[in-house]
Backbone:
């Protein structure tokens, strides 16, 4: 995390993962385990044990299986009991209506289980900063116009994280091994897509708009 400005205190986001199908569960374990900037503190946690796991670990992120919910009230109750934990719901090809409902009931993100691996990681990092994230499947059709979904590329998501952390263009370029002009190009594209004039507005926009993070439907690798 060498791009952080002086005086910035960075805390590694911690993750609790609910119980998923075997292949998805293994894929998430591998995926998060390979990211040095994330820590999986509890995985494959059954719905009935989530309260105890969240109380014990106080994670920044909860990955929740849509299939484990008996109804949206389960999500709302979790959100009310643990308001400081961002909830990212993973579902089988969620519709626009599914995602709208999940966000209305307290989720920070709603993604397809077929989302690309790199985009799940981007979504976790963005959600840990309070930004709503959606799959592309929810960016078309009725019900999502209120969410104002904005599609960022994987590289733009990486640049966005660092801009929100207060990094300079030079620090971002060094950290991502790209040129400063490339950083400026990505930043201009981010500002345009999010509808903000400068990085100064990013903290405010992060809690207002939803970001579409996955480009194609591909299974989580195991």
Residues:
């Amino acid at each position: 995390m060498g791009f952080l400005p002086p005086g910035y205190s960075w805390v590694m986001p911690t993750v609790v993962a609910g119980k998923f199908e075997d292949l998805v569960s293994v894929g998430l374990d591998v995926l998060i385990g390979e990211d040095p900037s994330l820590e999986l503190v509890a995985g494959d946690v059954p719905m009935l044990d989530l309260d105890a796991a969240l109380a014990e670990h106080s994670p920044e992120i909860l990955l929740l299986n849509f299939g484990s919910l008996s109804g949206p009230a389960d999500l709302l109750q979790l959100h009310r009991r643990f308001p400081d934990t961002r909830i990212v719901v993973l579902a089988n090809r969620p519709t626009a209506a599914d995602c709208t409902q999940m966000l209305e009931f307290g989720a920070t993100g709603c993604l397809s289980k077929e989302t690309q691996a790199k985009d799940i990681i981007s979504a976790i990092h963005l959600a840990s900063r309070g930004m709503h994230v959606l799959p592309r499947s929810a960016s078309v059709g009725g019900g999502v116009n209120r969410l104002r979904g904005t599609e960022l590329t994987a590289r733009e998501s990486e640049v966005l994280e660092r801009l929100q952390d207060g990094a300079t263009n030079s620090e971002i370029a060094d950290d991502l091994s790209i040129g400063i002009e490339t950083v400026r190009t990505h930043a201009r594209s981010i500002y345009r897509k999010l509808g903000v004039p400068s990085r100064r507005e990013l903290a405010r926009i992060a809690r207002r708009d939803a970001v579409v993070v996955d480009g194609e439907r591909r299974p989580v690798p195991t």
Summary: The beta strands are 14-18, 39-45, 61-65, 86-91, 109-112, 132-134, 150-151, 210-212. The radius of gyration is 17 Å. The chain has one domain: 1-222. Residues 1-9, 140-149, 215-222 have pLDDT under 50 and may be disordered.
